[in-house]
UniProtKB/TrEMBL annotation:
Belongs to the FAD-dependent urate hydroxylase family. Pathway: Purine metabolism; urate degradation. It catalyses: urate + NADH + O2 + H(+) = 5-hydroxyisourate + NAD(+) + H2O. It is an enzyme of class 1 (oxidoreductase). It comes from the Bacteria. Transmembrane segments: none annotated. Its cofactor is FAD. It comes from Vreelandella songnenensis. GO terms for molecular function: FAD binding; FAD-dependent urate hydroxylase activity; urate oxidase activity. This is FAD-dependent urate hydroxylase. It holds the Pfam family FAD_binding_3. Keywords: FAD, Flavoprotein, Oxidoreductase, Purine metabolism. Its EC number is 1.14.13.113. InterPro entries: FAD-bd (IPR002938), FAD/NAD-bd_sf (IPR036188), HpxO (IPR047712).
Length: 400
């Protein structure tokens, strides 16, 4: 049986959901607020659980080709002293899939093309919805109404529709630090080309991660770089001062960090005050599913926000398919599917949101003694502890 599925938001969550439903033969329309898709941010590290979903959706090979070859992890102190250096190969062998750090633009375009431009309508600002036993109606800012069997709400961390689905006002919470991120041409002078390097100290962090070419026309390998600094909320955001600010925050840090700051083009930088959303008690209401950052905005310190959006998409489409196989009555099948989705996802994403917050606070000096203890641990780390944490997150996903 073919359903009409309406997806709000054409980010990586909404597009993954659209693709998952299309592959099961449903008729899908994606409604996106912006007139032109321009992903904010340089890149993301798609961990193996996200890549596994991409493989199921037929995009794994393309993603692997466009992404970086991240084989090692190194931690260094702020002055460049090596704390630990270990291989990620045992992790990849255990979980049977490597990680794929990738340019956001490349990931977005790959998903967009797979769904098909003809199924994605830009400039559509959804402001509300109503639902009853017969269906769901999405309401847009221009007054237009669009009916569907199922509404998938993937409208990001500032979700307009979330409160209605959850049935209460949900607030985003500041995690306590600011992240500047950017892409730079990869070079051995900055970091080994296959290693994720992280400099840590003073509750701050500088990260360089190999992210491949992202399909850029020059075939130039790049690093995905970010700078984290604990700061009060609402500090001024002035792109003209980014380089100067980073020089101040990282004065006296290791030479590659200084070189990186001088190297980056501030015009290509994104600056984000990191927020999360306390775990939600439900991700569904009648004929509506909440998905991606709208459902579980989290600190990026586990690199899991996008991966969880992809898991959501896969689980939701599977739940609908299995329910439709059991009962031909759409209303009843959707009721069962949304219940299955809720049970499968509320606990999984809630646990990851909480763990990401704890890790963010540890990395960024929320409790200075804990951050100092972590620095000391990194000096003893042989990789096993780090790999085990990542392995558990990956294997806890729907595709194992
Ligand atoms: P979004 O990408 O925000 O997409 C939502 C879409 O909905 C947007 O296109 C928006 O325009 C549209 N929209 C909004 N409102 C409406 C409306 N009313 N009507 C119609 N359309 C609407 N994740 C990882 O997996 N790995 C990482 O390494 C990683 N690193 C990160 C680093 C940083 C600094 C940050 C901030 C996040 C990171 N994440 C990472 C998280 C990841 O970026 C998000 O989880 C992911 O982008 C969420 O995708 P989404 O589709 O749910 O939301």
């Amino acid at each position: 049986m073919s359903l009409n599925v309406l997806v709000i938001g054409a980010g990586m969550g909404g597009l993954s959901a659209a693709l998952a439903f299309q592959q099961q033969g449903h008729h899908v329309t994606v409604m996106e607020r912006v007139e032109e898709m321009r992903p904010v941010g340089a890149a993301i590290s798609l961990w193996s659980n996200g890549v596994k979903v991409m493989h199921k959706l037929g995009l794994g090979t393309a993603i692997e080709r466009l992404s970086g070859d991240m084989q090692r992890m190194r931690y260094l102190s702020h002055d460049g002293h090596l704390l630990s250096d270990f291989s990620l190969a045992p992790l990849y062998e255990d979980v049977k899939q490597r990680a794929c750090p990738i340019a956001r633009a490349a990931l977005q375009q790959t998903l967009f093309e797979a769904v098909g431009a003809e199924h994605i309508k830009l400039g559509q600002h959804c402001v509300d919805y109503t639902s009853d036993a017969r269906g769901v109606t999405a309401i847009f800012a221009d007054g237009r109404e669009v009916e569907a069997d199922l509404l998938v709400v993937a409208d990001g961390t500032h979700s307009r529709l979330r409160n209605k689905i959850v049935g209460r006002a949900v607030e985003r919470q500041y995690v306590g630090y600011v992240n500047w991120n950017v892409r730079v041409p990869a070079s051995n002078a900055l970091a080994p080309l296959d290693s994720w390097d992280q400099y840590v100290g003073e509750g701050k962090r500088v990260s360089l991660m190999p992210m491949g070419t992202g399909g850029n026309s020059e075939g130039q390998e790049e690093f995905y770089c970010f700078f984290d600094v604990p700061l009060p909320a609402d500090t001024p955001n002035d792109p003209a001062r980014y380089t100067e600010e980073l020089r101040e925050h990282f004065a006296g840090w290791a030479r590659p960090v200084q070189a990186l700051i001088e190297h980056v083009d501030p015009a290509r930088m994104a600056r984000v005050e990191i927020h999360d959303i306390a775990p939600l008690e439900t991700l569904t209401s009648n004929r509506v599913a909440l998905l991606g950052d709208a459902a579980h905005g989290m600190a990026p310190d586990l690199g899991q926000g996008g991966c969880q959006a992809m898991e959501d998409a896969w689980v939701l489409a599977q739940a609908v398919q299995q329910a439709l196989e059991k009962t031909p009555v759409v209303e009843e099948a959707l009721r069962q599917a949304l219940e299955t989705y809720d049970v499968a996802r509320v606990e999984r994403v809630g646990e990851i949101v909480a763990r990401a917050r704890t890790r963010a606070e540890m990395i960024h000096g929320h409790t200075p003694a804990l951050t100092q203890a972590w620095y000391a641990e990194l000096g003893q780390e042989d990789g096993q502890g780090v790999r085990e944490g990542i392995r558990k997150t990956i294997l806890g996903g729907p595709l194992g």
